[in-house]
Design a protein that fits this description.
single chain; about 100 residues; alpha+beta; four-stranded antiparallel beta sheet; two-stranded antiparallel sheet; 2 helices; about 15% helix; globular
Length: about 100
C-alpha cells in the first residue's frame, strides 16, 4: 500500500509551477525607500511574483513588470500567506487577485 495521496488530492510541487504570486496593496518599502514603477511611477497595488528560480518580479496595475533585486524568496515566504489556489494561466491568476 502506498503512502502517497491519490493524484486528485496532490498539490503541485514548487518545481511544477512557474511561480507564485500575491497582491501587495500598500507601498512597498525596500531598503528604506518606497518602490515605484520605473515606467509609470505608481507606488502601491503590486502583484509580487516569486519565480521558480527564486527571483522576485513586481507588476503594477498598468501591467508593467520589473525584476526586483532587493527582494528574495525568503522575503516572499515571510510575507505571503498560504497558497490558496493554483491557476493554469497567468491571466487567470491576475484576475483572481483583482488585476
Amino acid at each position: 500500500m502506498s503512502d502517497l495521496l491519490p493524484p486528485e488530492l496532490r498539490v503541485p510541487s514548487r518545481q511544477e509551477v512557474a511561480g507564485l504570486m500575491m497582491r501587495w496593496e500598500q507601498p512597498l518599502v525596500i531598503g528604506g525607500e518606497v518602490r515605484t514603477c520605473p515606467e509609470c511611477g505608481v507606488y502601491r497595488d503590486w502583484i509580487v511574483f516569486c519565480m521558480r528560480d527564486d527571483s522576485i518580479w513586481l507588476r503594477c496595475r498598468a501591467g508593467h513588470e520589473t525584476k526586483e533585486p532587493g527582494l528574495d524568496a525568503a522575503w516572499y515566504n515571510r510575507n505571503s500567506g498560504p497558497v490558496d489556489r493554483f491557476h493554469p494561466t497567468l491571466e487567470e491568476g491576475l484576475r483572481h487577485l483583482g488585476h
